[in-house]
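Session log. Operator J.P. requested a structure for one protein chain; no other inputs attached. Running the standard single-chain path with token output.
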Amino acid sequence: MPAWGHRHRIRVGLLGGSFNPAHAGHLHIARLALQRLRLDQVWLLVSPGNPLKDAAGLATLADRMGSARRIAGGRILATVIEARLHTRYTFDTLQALRRRFPRVRFVWLMGADNLVQLPRWQRWQGITRCMPFAVMPRPSYNQRALASLAAHRLRPALHPARAAPALASSAAPAWTFLPARQNALSATALRANRGGFPLLQWPPLPQTVPHSPERRQSAGFSLKKLPIIEGLRT
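Structure written below.
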């Protein structure tokens, strides 16, 4: 990756996490974001570690990156860029990405469970002022998320779901909650059921991102070939 990244003008969703392991639920969220937010790419940011989680049971970064690569492909890219940036906290990672990719319009993607605990994150209000973010539904968390301290404080910046395609172009703070079909699969359940770091096997999800020229055009996607930032794949 060049020292200061690339200068492509694209719309990118950032989905961070431990990916311990990556699974169909992550893929569902990535596809949902591509479609509903009209993104060009989604980057899976495989974190070296989570300051809010116990490291016990955490697989190696190489294993977790491998699981993320297995669900990535096309416009969904897996990356360990946080390790390469030497950032530990989300705020620092987002700031570094904005400096490296000054023309990219980023949207931070988070599950409803993360909105509930957002005030525990370091410089959480700075995160919300760094770039727009979209909250993805998760079973049993949605009502708590919308009634949470973070949601209450950020209520003036809430955009309706019907305006989601414009979120990437909005000035932060700006956010939306995307009601949609939910996937209840979790990495915790996978590890418990498989007795360790599991191999990833699941029924393939229906493709939610339009592919044909007619469907892409009606969905508002550009038909030009999108640049792929190859440095992110490693």
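Operator note: The longest strand covers residues 11-17.
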